Amino acid sequence: MGAYARASGVCARGCLDSAGPWTMSRALRPPLPPLCFFLLLLAAAGARAGGYETCPTVQPNMLNVHLLPHTHDDVGWLKTVDQYFYGIKNDIQHAGVQYILDSVISALLADPTRRFIYVEIAFFSRWWHQQTNATQEVVRDLVRQGRLEFANGGWVMNDEAATHYGAIVDQMTLGLRFLEDTFGNDGRPRVAWHIDPFGHSREQASLFAQMGFDGFFFGRLDYQDKWVRMQKLEMEQVWRASTSLKPPTADLFTGVLPNGYNPPRNLCWDVLCVDQPLVEDPRSPEYNAKELVDYFLNVATAQGRYYRTNHTVMTMGSDFQYENANMWFKNLDKLIRLVNAQQQAKGSSVHVLYSTPACYLWELNKANLTWSVKHDDFFPYADGPHQFWTGYFSSRPALKRYERLSYNFLQVCNQLEALVGLAANVGPYGSGDSAPLNEAMAVLQHHDAVSGTSRQHVANDYARQLAAGWGPCEVLLSNALARLRGFKDHFTFCQQLNISICPLSQTAARFQVIVYNPLGRKVNWMVRLPVSEGVFVVKDPNGRTVPSDVSPNNEYSPAGTPPPVVIFPSSDSQAHPPELLFSASLPALGFSTYSVAQVPRWKPQARAPQPIPRRSWSPALTIENEHIRATFDPDTGLLMEIMNMNQQLLLPVRQTFFWYNASIGDNESDQASGAYIFRPNQQKPLPVSRWAQIHLVKTPLVQEVHQNFSAWCSQVVRLYPGQRHLELEWSVGPIPVGDTWGKEVISRFDTPLETKGRFYTDSNGREILERRRDYRPTWKLNQTEPVAGNYYPVNTRIYITDGNMQLTVLTDRSQGGSSLRDGSLELMVHRRLLKDDGRGVSEPLMENGSGAWVRGRHLVLLDTAQAAAAGHRLLAEQEVLAPQVVLAPGGGAAYNLGAPPRTQFSGLRRDLPPSVHLLTLASWGPEMVLLRLEHQFAVGEDSGRNLSAPVTLNLRDLFSTFTITRLQETTLVANQLREAASRLKWTTNTGPTPHQTPYQLDPANITLEPMEIRTFLASVQWKEVDG
Ligand SMILES: [Zn+2]
Q: Which residues are catalytic?
């Protein structure tokens, strides 16, 4: 069964290897439970819950001030990840993580009462691997004793606005797995710790709860929200982070830290600070102990008034602090001694102690209070009037797209590694490996990476890391495809298809196209490849010519030859080569191979684009297929109307591009628009152009309207046969700023829908939240920025509805979006700015080179409100996990002798139902795979087709390449068995939470409730790949 090798520890990974085959239900367990089961019982019998045994003693009748020594180490920001780790380029920012960890470990060893938390595993794991065995042993001891505690434990502290939930889960899994493998249960973080991200999403809280965290602390929230919470004593609450998952599944105890993540003023004792050290010698002219102790007592008492228990926290540390940990700890030691001495001397009722977030949380839990409940999220974040951090939702759109595309590619890589096993890692193309891309993707989730808030050279380095990760995955895919096809070939991956560059298809007269579909159900996909001039015949996996109604000039086809498929002529053949289009039919979790061959001696006669003169006599201009008709105004060239022909819905929709003139500060506030902040200098955006130059292209396989708005803004509105959405492929940039005006470009859709100030956005690509203009659900908003203060993160979709009709726009990356007038919705596609916004990056967001010109897609769905979810859920799934196109010249050699070459393959024996998303299929070590299945509909969301109903799956024999010999269910990040995992319980003012049903695991009956994700570790045996 091949248990994955572990570094240490009894019961590491929560005794995942202890359960019997195929069983997790208690009734079927072996008669003698494993050792760690007894240990769990012992812990439960004591006064302390698991993981809190090492917490310090507190004083029951005093105000306990928990000092939390910590460092905040950004995984890239002003410096690259490596520059931060090694302490390079200290002229940019003095910061060296390796020295911080060295220094902290020494300081902890010097005094057993000292404690420290560490967070970013991208740094910690690198440092760990450079230590001697002796140092590692010492650190293990510190962890065991609770003196070094891990908080959060993700590879990075991820951004919450621009991240997709799948990538969040992946990066948390990577970090927590390192801790589990290295320290076992001792190293498992009990609290989530997002002290710096710029606003907090509800889905993040839901995911943290499902990961098994007992609580969550953060630093940044809207300044008005914070003030109200302080008055109402609601700095700490239970966050009910899902409207679908039954409480307490997505309930998370959440605390707002009193001072962001910084120490109180005058009490920063780092080498980076200038505050006075504590001088306790009364003979010294610098004596200040009494003054500082009095000051501390005042701060502690004042801060304690805004919290409900007799406990409060102080975050003693900040960005890259503790490089000289002795400075901090020496002064904290004195502070603790002097403050606590006041209890005896002066009857003070303040007790101060070294603590950790988990130990503070444990005291809150023991207070046994009834807590209020939060249902919405913490977006958008403003740290003062006119200072909305809503620009980063859209900053660096090229990097945001590269990150999303890399998520797609990583899942393909993970899946093929799991489906093929070792033969994917070691094969004819060399060593294939998913780990480098997995780590690069984890780094990209950092709150200065995908957020677009790093310096330019750091953003370049993030892109470099992704690119470096793609290479070993390409080798892995080649090994896997050779294995599954039984055929070696020179596989090539055309990474520049978005700009119509693919050397093989543009030069070869014949080639093979292998299209891999990462979804759990079959899909039809329009393949689009740049080719040389000519006509091509495409054959499907069975050797049949791909049915194409006909090329525009089929009548010229020589007798006896099969009808050629359409060549799609480009509007500008100089800049863009012609493209070959064909519809590929792809099996679930598998591939189809198409062969393409040029037809000789045949003059290409594809229909040329038809320029449409402005002021045409024609009343309207349309493109349509069997489901949709889009109508354009011939006078302006703009989209005018969309019709859903199945539902007979007609909606006037006017879409065009505008730009906001970025503020550089004004009389009201000197706040400028920048990488973080969005602040237009007036509410009304300016049109890029009042009309578009257009031309129309219609072939049997595609209908397009090409719109040219300006030299730097154009769009293709596109319909393929059978497609239920309208595709808008926009190209924007380089945004001209020669007029010294920073510009923030939006695509806006205006309709007559009566939307009553409401619109809807997704949370990290999963559940949907209602937004209301100039409104916050939990306090009366004083709106200072009518545009920027109404912007929200859009990870995958935004929609408006009047209750009958719904207009949904899906995005191909994270963007900021809003609805600033009823019936209108807008998405910010690009921004280029000349001024810095004063939040530390000290560089204007002025991309040149590869980030300056951006192309992306908006997918538009018009449907009844009732049927809309079925459309946007399935389309968003396909957008995030799109098929992967791999090319080969053909004519390779047989590889897996004994098995016939294969042109088509599915990794599943049966398709998954439409409500089920295969979130993760990845290798988890020798003979183990990680499997996550997700119900992708919310409760009540799909009343039409019943896709919101619970669904039951049979996992036995589901996969075609391996047999599952044992299945264990875990928490979302696979670091605890679901059965053994328990979280602290909290009483809420909404009444008791229902009892959870007894846990059972039957692989033949895996039921998923709406929005439920279930995570499994499966022991598997790969079969010989023989078809
Ligand atoms: Zn940070």
A: 196
